[in-house]
Amino acid sequence: MSFYDYSIPTPKGEDFPLSSYEDKVVLVVNTATGCGFTPQYKDLEELYEAYHDQGLEILDIPCNQFANQTPEDDEAIHEFCTLHYNTQFPQMKKSDVNGENQLPLYRFLKEKQPFTGFGKSPKALAMAAMLKKIDKNYKSNPEIKWNFTKFLVNRQGEVVARFEPTESMKKVKEAVASLI
């Protein structure tokens, strides 16, 4: 299967086929409204405004699997994002990205780009230390570790990169720009 063979639910419960994004560069992000990384919405919106006309799409998939940081319903999440960050990119239904009820898309994304670490920045080291307390084996599985993990898909539907939430948005922007 390819990226384009999947669909994801909209907040209204309709299936959104990812084939709609053929020949586009897509950034898939699991988000949260009450996370320390939530300000990345500002960077994501800037990225969207800079590259949307050139073929970038951002898929915002809210998720409440990490420390209950997205307890709101889909409508309240959307209102929060548009009010605080003026987001214009599509927001999908709040969904699981790990476990038994994960979106099939996430199983595919993690298979193509498994977890390889957080890096060496102070934020990365803090995130690793926190996760080690929760799961001593966190390094050995491909699961999403936290909110704002990003997957980059090229125009051919190939998952070419995974960015952990600790990765600088500058690096994400450079990777997107290289595909535009």
Describe the structure.
By secondary structure, this protein is an alpha+beta fold. The protein has one domain: Glutaredoxin, CATH 3.40.30. 32% of the residues lie in helices and 16% in strands. The chain has 5 helices and 6 strands, in the order βββαβαααββα. The strands form 2 sheets. The protein has a 4-stranded mixed sheet with strand order 4-3-5-6, covered by helices on one side. Strand 1 and strand 2 form a beta hairpin. Helix 1 runs parallel beside helix 5. The chain is globular, with a radius of gyration of 15 Å.
Quick summary:
It is built from 5 helices and 6 strands.
Termini gap: 24 Å
Number of domains: 1
Helix/strand class: alpha+beta
**Could you state the CATH homologous superfamily?**
Glutaredoxin
Looking at the structure, what is the overall shape? globular
> What is the percentage of strand-forming residues?
15-25%
Rg, alpha carbons:
15 Å
Q: What is the secondary structure topology, with strand pairs?
A:
Elements: E1 7-9, E2 15-17, E3 25-31, H1 40-51, E4 56-62, H2 74-85, H3 104-112, H4 122-134, E5 150-153, E6 159-163, H5 169-179
Parallel strand pairs: 3-4
Antiparallel strand pairs: 1-2, 3-5, 5-6
Helix pairs in contact: 1-5
